[in-house]
Design a protein that fits this description.
The complex is a heterodimer of chains A (121) and B (106). Chain A is 0% helix and 50% strand. Chain A contains no helices and eleven strands. In chain A, strands 2, 4, 5, 6, 9, 10 and 11 form a seven-stranded mixed beta sheet that branches. The N and C termini of chain A lie far apart (40 Å). Chain B is an all-beta fold and 106 residues long. In chain B, strands 2, 4, 5, 6, 9, 10 and 11 form a seven-stranded mixed beta sheet that branches. A four-stranded antiparallel beta sheet of chain B has the order 1-3-8-7, with no helix packed on it. In chain B, a hairpin with a 3-residue loop joins strand 5 and strand 6. The relative contact order of chain B is 0.35. Classes of the chains: A mainly beta (121), B mainly beta (106). Chains A and B meet through strand 5 and strand 10 of A and strand 4, strand 5 and strand 10 of B.
Chain lengths: 121, 106
């Protein structure tokens, strides 16, 4: 069974940094693209960043480009999202999700349970 | 960027009735369209991919149709567990979600 478990969320001040982790199991991590999606309180889903299988290509939403970095550790089967220069508008539940294939041009299934990031002074 | 819109924003339906949700893309996404269900406090769950293929374990009462810019998710006979938020998502040109349709009990 494929499982995704996010961690690393919490309260951080504006301008601060946080690193999210997504521990995975049940599949060969390096063979699949992975994604981060966020959901602000009471709002819809917004794609944040994706990484292709084996990490060759990385993609970012304009709103986080230059501030967030996606990466993966194949030895730990774990996906990361390094978030720097955080803003109040980054406050959201952050979900990691597995793509259907190594190519990012596919749907997301399954999703982790999410981790809440709150940016506030 | 491909912008996704969904209608209606909210629909009130009685259990056992049919619900038809619409999703429109600002440009063609071919059949690269997925539908997700989200319940309060839970992560989204994949229902449909490729515009019309049900994901593993999804009941047959869920069906998807469409291609290009117009898509539909139909729930043939609503059950209590189907009252939730539904999002469409295109993965043809990067990844964008619609704003969602809330299906509530009438």
């Amino acid at each position: 069974e494929v499982q995704l478990l996010e961690s690393g969320g919490g309260l951080v001040q504006p301008g601060g940094s946080l690193r999210l982790s997504c521990a995975t199991s049940g599949f060969t991590f390096s063979n699949y693209a992975m994604t981060w999606v966020r959901q602000a309180p009471g709002k819809g889903l917004k794609w944040v960043s994706s990484i292709s299988g084996r990490g060759g290509d990385r993609y970012y939403a304009d709103s986080v480009k230059g501030r967030f970095t996606i990466s993966g550790d194949n030895s730990k089967n774990t996906l990361y999202l390094q978030m720097n220069s955080l803003r109040a508008e980054d406050t959201a539940v952050y979900y990691c999700a597995k793509h259907y294939s190594s190519s990012p041009n596919s749907w997301f299934d399954p999703w982790g349970q999410g981790t809440l990031v709150t940016v506030s002074s | 960027e491909t912008v996704m819109t969904q209608s209606p924003a909210t629909m009130s339906v009685s259990p056992g009735e049919r619900a038809t949700l619409s999703c429109r893309a600002s440009q063609s996404v071919n059949s690269n369209l997925a539908w997700y269900q989200q319940k309060p406090g839970q992560a989204p769950r994949l229902l449909i991919y490729g515009a019309s293929t049900r994901a593993t374990g999804i009941p047959a009462r869920f069906s998807g149709s469409g291609s290009g810019t117009e898509f539909t998710l139909t729930i043939s006979r609503l059950q209590s567990e189907d009252f939730a938020l539904y999002y469409c998502q295109q993965y043809n040109d990067w990844w964008t979600f619609g704003p969602g349709t809330k299906v509530e009990i009438k």
